[in-house]
Amino acid sequence: MTVPLLTGTTELDAADLAGRSDVVILGPSLGADVHLWELALPAISAHHAILRWDLPGHGVSVPVTKGFSLAELADSVIALADSRGIDRFDYAGVSVGGAVGLELARLYPDRVKSAAVVCSAAKIGETSAWAERATLVRAKGTSVLLEATPARWFSEAFRLNHPDVVDCLLAMIAAADNESYARVCEALGAFDARPTLSSIQVPMLVISGQLDPGTPPELGAVIAETVPGARQVVITGVSHQAVVEKPALVAQILVDFFAEKH
């Protein structure tokens, strides 16, 4: 196992992030890169300095050939924050990015001021299913996932009304490095934060999509009901990529949450 090297994207120079108290770090979903947050970014950046990160082999982060855990991805996020001179920060992540947020809150409560888990869960899917997907991607590439992904990620109404946005997200999946994608699948298969949720002391918000088939609201509720002081917001009419389907609403929920915890 190893600690992957992550690449961050920010609208500010690294020197301008150092020592700031208003930094929010945003994490991606599997298959997507930092542009997943693009539509929500203006509303969040009006109040915060933003640092987004790419998963290994996604976007501008370098590919990997060795396995890693989500705890080690959390270590990687901390290393990225250190490289930018960021001490304490708020955090929000989608899907696997949200799961990394749980690990950040557990392992680095002195660094994470508050964490928002967006369309995610303490245990996402079954280990065997993730192993099968990793094998499939290694054999046929991430393009094999493109046909089935829209129904998992977006509501039917969004798919019909915004095909250009859906295609943009699918292009991110197609561009991901096959081996790196498979390694993230294996890390997700091994991940189970349920036994440690009650020990988390970082203020936490769970955002769930009403129509999300992969991380439905009832899985988000497990986090909200177990982490002390946590709460859940369910957004109606959206699926797994709530931050894409209703970016302004997600952004406002996050901005309000970060403000009330400071």
TrEMBL record:
Q: Where is the AB hydrolase-1 domain?
A: 28-252
UniProt xrefs under InterPro entries: AB_hydrolase_1, AB_hydrolase_fold, AB_hydrolase_sf
Q: Does the keyword Electron transport apply?
A: no
**Which keywords label this protein?**
Hydrolase
Q: Which domain of life is it from?
A: Bacteria
The UniProt GO MF terms for this protein read:
hydrolase activity
The terms describing its cellular component in GO are: membrane
Give the residues annotated as coiled coil. Answer: none
Name-wise, this protein is 3-oxoadipate enol-lactonase
Per the UniProt entry, what species is this protein from, by scientific name? Alpinimonas psychrophila
